[in-house]
Amino acid sequence: MFKRKTSVVALISAATIILGSFVSTPAKAASGFVGVILPDAASSARWETADRGFLKAAFDKAGVTVDIQNANGDKAAFATIADQMLTKGAKVLIMVNLDSDSSKAVQDKAKAQGVPTIDYDRLTLGGSASYYVSFDNVSVGKLQGEGIVNCLKAKGVKKPRVVYLNGSPTDNNATLFKQGYKSVVDPYLKSTGGTLVADQAVPDWDNAKGGVIFEQMLTKAKGKLDAVVSANEGLGLAAVAVLKKNRLNGKVCVSGQDATVDGLRAVLTGDLSNTVYKAIKAEAQGAADLAVALINGKTAKTNGTTDNGVSNVPSVLLVPVGITKENVKLVIADGFQKKADVCKGIAQLCTKFGVN
Fold first, then answer.
1. What are the C-alpha distances in Å from 296 to residues 285, 290, 313, 328?
2. What is the pTM assigned to this prediction?
3. Could you give the domains of the chain?
4. Please, which residues bridge with residue 33 across strands?
5. With contact defined as beta carbons under 8 Å apart, do 322 and 151 qualify?
6. In this structure, which of 66, 99, 232, 289 has its CB flanked by the most CB atoms within 10 Å?
């Protein structure tokens, strides 16, 4: 595990989440365009439903042309998109890697051509990015673990039986999430005499594979589980689908992250015990500000550094927020999701938990 240095400042009130950009507002950028490569549309809905729109809006506001493409989980396509962007004259590349090796190859090629790169959301280990913008991902995992522990306590479980349904082994974020939730859940299991029944990663964040892996976990546990620490909502909802088949949904604590519409609905219905909200609009704005600074030959403001194994990358690290039924309303109030989408068909639950 690589050490992380960070100093994060945030203000979270009872009804509002304030997660502003940590960089200065840039002047209109010089000529040229910024290329953005998103990873896929399957592991999480966020890349297309949130990040794409927020990134475009941020660059439009700055008066900078942006080309946003999605590799759709294909490493060869990722490399091809990058090559095309470099050939067309991209001044900066922003990328969400599929794995560190394939992303490093792109960064090395871009660097050789004098084009700086920005790691967005996922760190490229051994890479050469000029900047990294993301959330404090160990804190994300801690929030997931705290939500699971609180759920187990609320249910009065004495000796909990728990499984870890981890993210992709090639994604450094998944490693950091696990570091976070293990630091909370492992001590709790030890103190209660609980059992970690299974601990397995899901290749490529594939939700279908996640469902199969979890079904095998449930079989191994002979149907007796108290909690599923799942690394995101895609995997968490895949586990919920299996639990529903066995009439166990709502009885087993299940974590997530990303605050998608389906995830928030599942939190309200009790199928997910908790999730994590990451203010993607602020993340996208941070990446845009960094890119514009690079185009203009300026040094952007950051709030920490992150060790990628070969260097400490100047970083903008934002603050995640744990979400349960009681504060789903914060995500709606922040404008990240719409009440109409989250509350469709479950209006009574929204009213009960103050989702306005």
1. 17, 10, 19, 40
2. 0.82
3. 4-136+280-319 (3.40.50.2300), 137-277+322-352 (3.40.50.2300)
4. 65, 90
5. no
6. 232
